[in-house]
Design brief:
213 residues, 8 strands, Alpha/beta knot, globular, single chain, eight-stranded parallel beta sheet, 2 domains, alpha/beta
Length: 213
């Protein structure tokens, strides 16, 4: 590894957000998942959760990440696959205090009125059906992205990009990417070692699978 590459790793690790994540529920298009990974890596998210409760998605979840659309970031962002919503939320809430889902309703909050500098998970649903009712009931609330056109929805990967960059804006204003990092020095050192091992091929891409059974 070149010194320049190591410096890049150190810069990336220093900006990782340990209390910001994304959950995807039954997202069919692997290219959408890949694009979401790319956006998440770009704002310093180090892990995402993929909740697949539909049988066809469970069968193909090993292939669910689009390599081309992820731009290689699937190697650096951990992906945790779940087939049971309760198990997924139990794990998410160990690190992230609140879960907000994209859903159009009378009680939905404007994205730009959410405090995304707090530990939070943002949940995005299926391309056609959105977030399922059972999963919505597990969330702390839902939000919408303001739109001025005829359409009331955005492509899921676009919606995720808009949302996580609003989180970036809020967190950057509080110095989370600079003088007020979210990870302790020891945590940064451990993650840096992990990334170096991934670069050297000693560790593969991290994928964890948790089945309902």
């Amino acid at each position: 590894m070149t010194p320049q590459r190591l410096d890049k790793f150190k810069e990336v690790v220093a900006c990782r957000q340990s209390d910001l994540t994304v959950i995807l529920e039954n997202v069919w298009d692997s290219h959408n998942v890949g694009a979401v990974l790319r956006s998440c890596d770009s704002v310093g998210i180090r892990e995402i959760f993929v909740l697949n409760t539909e049988a066809k998605l469970v069968d193909k979840q090993n292939l669910v990440v689009g390599k081309r659309t992820s731009g290689g970031t699937s190697k650096w962002v951990d992906v945790h696959f779940y087939t049971d919503a309760e198990a997924c939320f139990k794990e998410v809430r160990k690190k992230y205090k609140q879960v907000f889902a994209t859903h159009l309703s009378e009680k939905a909050k404007d994205l730009y009125k959410l405090d995304l500098s707090q530990p939070v998970a943002l949940l995005f649903g299926n391309e056609m059906l959105g977030v399922s009712k059972p999963v919505l009931e597990m969330c702390d609330g839902n939000f919408i992205i303001p739109q001025m056109g005829m359409s009331e929805s955005l492509n899921i990967s676009v919606a995720c990009a808009v949302s996580v960059y609003e989180a970036y804006r809020q967190r950057n204003a509080k110095g989370f990417y600079g003088d007020n990092p979210q990870m302790l020095p020891a945590e940064q050192a451990a993650l840096l070692e992990d990334y170096v091992e991934r670069h050297d091929g000693k560790l593969g891409t991290k994928r964890t699978y948790f089945s309902k059974d």
